[in-house]
Amino acid sequence: MKTNTYFNSKIILLAISLLLCFTTVNAQGLEETTIIYDTSISNNCQLDAKTLFVQLIRDYNLQQDTKKGVVLRTSTCGAGRIANIKTATLPKAQSSFLGGSSISERKKALGLFLAKAKAHIDALAAQPCDERETNLYRTIVYLSKRYSPDASSKCLIIYSDMAESSSVFNTATPAYINNPEALLKDYERIIASFKNDAPYPNLKGVAIVIINPMNNDFLLYQSRFWEKFFLTECGASSVQIRTAL
Q1: Which of 73-82, 118-127, 231-240 shows the lowest mean pLDDT across its residues?
Q2: Measured between alpha carbons, how far is 215 from 219 in angstroms, rounded to an integer?
Q3: Average pLDDT over residues 39-58
Q4: pTM of the shown model
Q5: Whole-number Cα distances in Å, 55 to 12, 37, 133, 166, 244
Q6: What residues have CB less than 8 Å from 117, skipping those under 6 apart?
Q7: Among 142, 44, 137, CA closest to 85
Q8: Which sign, positive or negative, has the C-alpha torsion 224, 228, 234, 239?
Q9: E-strand spans in 195-237?
Q10: Beta strands of the chain (E only): which ranges?
């Protein structure tokens, strides 16, 4: 059952106040976060909108780096070949916080970003898991092209059982479900199928977090397969596998 949590305007205003209560100005950076939510029937990961929103805002650390830019992209992953992306952007601040007008402008920019980010995360969590395919590989390839080469920090969060089930390759078959170790034994053959469909995604410098229930061996080996792929073939800086954010 999907989470359908909504924050009122007072919480948004409180978040803005907390973010603006420090005036420390560090070097401006650009942080980019992409969230993929698997909406296929096989996926039983639950996206908690409230927890995700609060954790992201905390991780952006805007209290200490008040001029940084933030880009948050969200997308579902199901039968569609092209990801449906929603974007919330906090531009880099261009002027000093010493002037009242710049504080006012920054407060407005923060408010717009927080409201849009919350709305996009809520919409993502409300999506039904009813897709019969999982075009995970194509979704990651498509979204990987959106990262800016100038970003100082890049993150990819994937809520999925990680079972590719498409015309690219199908790992959700009895051969792998009953013998999940074969996913690693067939690693070279599987990634060759990926490359035949599209060049490997460029994830250089991207920190990846996989949210996966990990409650059976099939899910365990799926995660191990993708961890190896992201690090070895795609250049990801790190891969973490968690059962919750």
Answers
A1: 73-82
A2: 7
A3: 89
A4: 0.86
A5: 14, 16, 30, 32, 12
A6: 53, 56, 57, 72, 88
A7: 142
A8: positive
A9: 206-211
A10: 30-38, 69-77, 85-90, 153-159, 206-211, 238-242
Exposure string (b/e) for 123-134, b if CB count within 10 Å is 16 or more?
A: ebbebebebebb
Structure tokens at 191: 């990634």
Q: Does residue 112 contact residue 72 with C-beta atoms inside 8 Å?
A: no
Widest pairwise Cα distance in the chain: 65
The identity of residue 19, as a single letter, is L
d(CA 1, CA 138): 27
Q: Answer yes or no: are the C-beta atoms of 65 and 104 closer than 8 Å.
A: no
Three-class DSSP category at 72: strand
* Sign of the CA dihedral with 40 first, then 45, 48, and 53 last: negative
- Nearest Cα residue to 85 out of 156, 162, 191, 184: 156
Half-sphere exposure of 39 (CA within 13 A, CB side): 22
- Within 10 A of 41 (CB to CB), how many other CB atoms are there? 15
Phi, psi of 57 (to 5 degrees): -60, -40
In this prediction, residue 3 carries a pLDDT of: 46
- Reading the block at residue 73, the tokens are 């992209």
The residue length of the chain stands at 245
Q: CA-CA distance, 33 to 28, in Å (whole number)?
A: 17
212/38 Cα distance (integer angstroms): 11
Which residues are bridge partners to 35 per DSSP? Answer: 74, 157
